[in-house]
Write a structure and sequence with these properties.
By secondary structure, this protein is of the alpha/beta class. The chain has one domain (47-245): Rossmann fold (3-Layer(aba) Sandwich), CATH 3.40.50. Helix content is 36%, strand content 17%. The chain has seven helices and seven strands, in the order H-H-E-H-E-H-E-E-H-E-H-H-E-E. It has a seven-stranded mixed beta sheet with strand order 3-2-1-4-5-7-6, with helices on both faces.
Length: 247
């Protein structure tokens, strides 16, 4: 064996270690306030809407003590409420812990105000993930996880769990069809390069047989549960922010 070949063989373990370390090492996620941490670094530009939701709740003149976000992902919605209400505690809730490390980095400045709860898969809040002292319930993209009957059940449980004056806050899509579906689809594609929207706001529907309910059906589910005056307080194309206060 030549000297060069022996030298190359001697270096192989060290090179393998370096390659393994490089493969394992991942760049630290870039966490933009009130925006999700998605694969590839894409945000959804819904941070202002999230902040607006917290600001609206603040108009009642009393600060919530406990904000629960079910389906928190990387904590972007809950962050807006914790920032708005410095005395509130928050619960990050996900069915698995895949995004918990990112959420912990996001929430580091809030210290012990945040607790982490694994539970309520599919946004099923009947599965025991809601604390007794909750006075604001936040969730996003219900319609990708729940069919219309399950959306109604969500709001019924939310109403039963919240105190008088408590809030439910939902970021979601509103279903459209026919000419409006094509208009909004084409408008979104043209809005993206102009910086007016993102190509994807929220994940796609998880179940092939689910159809996103129209806006009125989603507001009706809130009203039928007992929320007397649900409102759309912000919208962009087919993305809507819905809020309702328990009388």
């Amino acid at each position: 064996m030549s000297k060069r070949a022996r030298w190359a063989m001697a270096l192989m373990p060290a090179m393998a270690t370096l390659m393994t370390s490089a493969a394992i090492a991942q760049p630290a996620p870039v966490i933009a306030r009130y925006e999700p941490v998605n694969p590839g670094g894409a945000i959804d530009r819904l941070g202002d809407a999230r902040r607006l939701a917290a600001l609206i709740v603040a108009q009642d003149g009393h600060a919530p003590k406990s904000v629960v976000d079910v389906g928190s992902f990387t904590g972007e919605f809950l962050e807006a409420f914790l920032e708005q209400f410095p005395a509130a505690k928050g619960q990050w809730t996900e069915p698995v812990d895949n995004n918990q490390k990112v959420a912990e980095q996001r929430f580091a400045r809030f210290g012990p105000r945040v607790i982490y709860r694994i539970g309520c898969p599919g946004r099923d809040i009947a599965m025991g993930c809601l604390p007794a002292d909750m006075d604001v319930l936040v969730s996003s993209w219900l319609t990708i996880h729940r069919n219309p009957a399950e959306i109604k059940a969500f709001h019924q449980k939310a109403f039963a769990s919240l105190p008088s004056g408590g809030w439910v806050v939902i970021m979601d899509h509103a279903g459209v069809d026919g000419a409006w579906e094509l208009r909004l689809k084409n408008a979104r594609e043209q809005a993206v390069p102009a910086g007016l929207a993102m190509l994807r706001e929220g994940p796609p529907v998880h179940h092939p047989d689910y159809v996103t309910p129209p806006l009125e059906a989603q507001l009706a589910a809130m009203r039928d549960a007992g929320f007397a005056d649900p409102r759309v307080v912000w919208s962009r194309l087919d993305t809507v922010l819905m809020m309702a206060r328990k009388p």
